[in-house]
Amino acid sequence: MSRFWSPVVQTLTPYIPGEQPQMQRLVKLNTNESPYGPSPKALAAINSLNNEDLRLYPDPEGVALKKAIATLHDLNPNQVFLGNGSDEVLAHVFAGLLKQNRPIQFPDITYSFYPVYCKLFGIDYQTVPLGSEFEIDPSTYKLPNGGIIFPNPNAPTGRSITRADIEKLLARNTDSVLVIDEAYVDYGTESCIPLLRGDKCPENLLVVHTLSKSRALAGLRVGFALGHPSLIEGLERVKNSFNSYPLGRLAQAGAVAAIEDQAHLEASSQKVIQTREKLVSQLKALGFETLPSTANFIFTRHPQHTGAKLYQALRDRGIIVRHFKSPRVEEFLRITIGTDEQSNELVTALQEILS
Ligand SMILES: *Cc1c(COP(=O)(O)O)cnc(C)c1O
């Protein structure tokens, strides 16, 4: 605390990122990174630009990257907004689209950065409870509102809803922006991107993506938003009032190559899905109850053991998972899907702990 802090800084409750422990030989299943490396083509592209040209500023507009993303998703480049990780994209979305006179809405159990941005930008919000099976029920989002945001699949539950459900919500919610955070969409969730194609692109739907999860580039910091050109223009205004160069030369080049390597994305996502399905059935045999996941993590609880106890017992064995202390979720563990080998180590450790 310092008397020189601005009043808003004194009120902040910052987001706490998952731990990046320095211990060796850890099974790190706590921050939803990919266990498989990024596209080798992305690494080659980054290496090829690691030279004298770093004295020059990068392209402030990220033209090549916008084009690659637009081509991949069959959109126009003016429907693409880029940021330094999707967290920065989300920050600009909160400041530029979700700061309205009415409170915005998001699930009571969701990505814990959303309320943090609300505090930072002075945005009122209402949380909408998940259903009894921890599902998002779009019919419980009430009008009028200042905007709606949720991840699909939701985090930390891993549960997703269909594109048709989101279309129904969009059909009702015509006077505010609906933001779908698709950070984990590549592990078996229906994307809303097809809704943005052609002349029927709604003026109030924004889809946010990241290269941190399925493209295994969390360390590069690249995220993007897709939507109607008028929404993107609003975001560009915020970005150009904050930082003209959010993406460095290496990040832009690596991201272009990663976006173009769809085969690498599909192969690694498929492996994660297979490991997930196997892990869910192994955990079931141990008495765990796991929410249906279409993400690269699962949310699981054991009726006879508290989340806190299991978290600590795993940690003692060098396996790091995530445990949230808030009501309704404190009985759960959120476990990132690792390699088959990591998954087997986890199951062996749990067998030991439970016996
Ligand atoms: C990981 C994550 C992000 C942020 O990813 P970046 O690394 O900042 O791109 C955004 N939303 C959700 C729901 C996430 O889990």
Word description of this protein:
With 355 residues, the chain is of the alpha/beta class. It folds into two domains: 18-37 and 263-354, Aspartate Aminotransferase, domain 1; 40-260, Aspartate Aminotransferase, domain 2 (3-Layer(aba) Sandwich). Helix content is 37%, strand content 13%. The strands form four sheets. It has a five-stranded mixed β-sheet, with helices on both faces. Strands 9-10-12 form a three-stranded antiparallel β-sheet. Strand 9 (289-290) and strand 10 form a beta hairpin. The mean pLDDT is 96. Pyridoxal-5'-phosphate binds at residues 85-87, 111, 151, 155, 181, 183, 210, 212, 218, 223.
How are the secondary structure elements laid out?
Blueprint: H1 7-11, E1 27-28, H2 40-48, H3 63-73, E2 80-83, H4 85-98, E3 104-107, H5 113-121, E4 125-128, E5 148-151, H6 163-172, E6 178-181, E7 205-210, E8 223-227, H7 229-239, H8 249-260, H9 262-285, E9 289-290, E10 297-301, H10 307-316, E11 319-320, E12 332-336, H11 340-354
Bound molecules: pyridoxal-5'-phosphate.
Residues 85-87, 111, 151, 155, 181, 183, 210, 212, 218, 223 line the site of pyridoxal-5'-phosphate (PLP).
